[in-house]
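Render this sequence as a predicted structure.
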Amino acid sequence: MSPRSSDAPQRVIDAAAQMLARVGLNATSIREVTKLAEAPLGSTYHHFPGGKQELLARATTMAGDKVETLLIELLKEGAVQGLQQFLALWRERLLRSGFRAGCPVLAAAVEEPVEAAPSQPRAAAAEVFARWQGHLTEAFVAEGRAHADAAGLASLVIASVEGAVAMSRARQDIAPFDQVAEQLLRAASHR
């Protein structure tokens, strides 16, 4: 049974997020995304008249929204417990993908598009990172940290997790991620 054409735009966004996570911004092409999504190429341009920039910005936002929803849920257990579970999920993702999948939001943030400026995906990534930092900050404040300390720790968590994912992918080894996770949990536990 072939996918319904009515879900084609969402399938295309999902496929774009998957490709961002695996191959990065510039290597993600609309043609390959539509193949992965099993969607017609022509209708993709109809649904995303801004082309690749619009599609990748929407994929970045969608991926960020999914992580944000998960993060909010995990942080209900408390900042440290939520962080521990969040780190465990990232560790599992790295191992399950054989170190092939990273974070689509990071990919959108660090690559400059070859064909356009300013970068819509990078702007979307900046907004996503700010939301994640806000939720982490609130969780650390709720556990008694001063706002400035909580915001700094939240920024450290996001930057460290993203960097640890990149290092583990580069080395094809979970050790860098585990080392960073241990340090983050230690920092989050001390007040």
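Summary. Residues 61 and 124 are 6 Å apart (CA to CA). The domain at 5-189 is CATH 1.10.357.10 (Tetracycline Repressor; domain 2).
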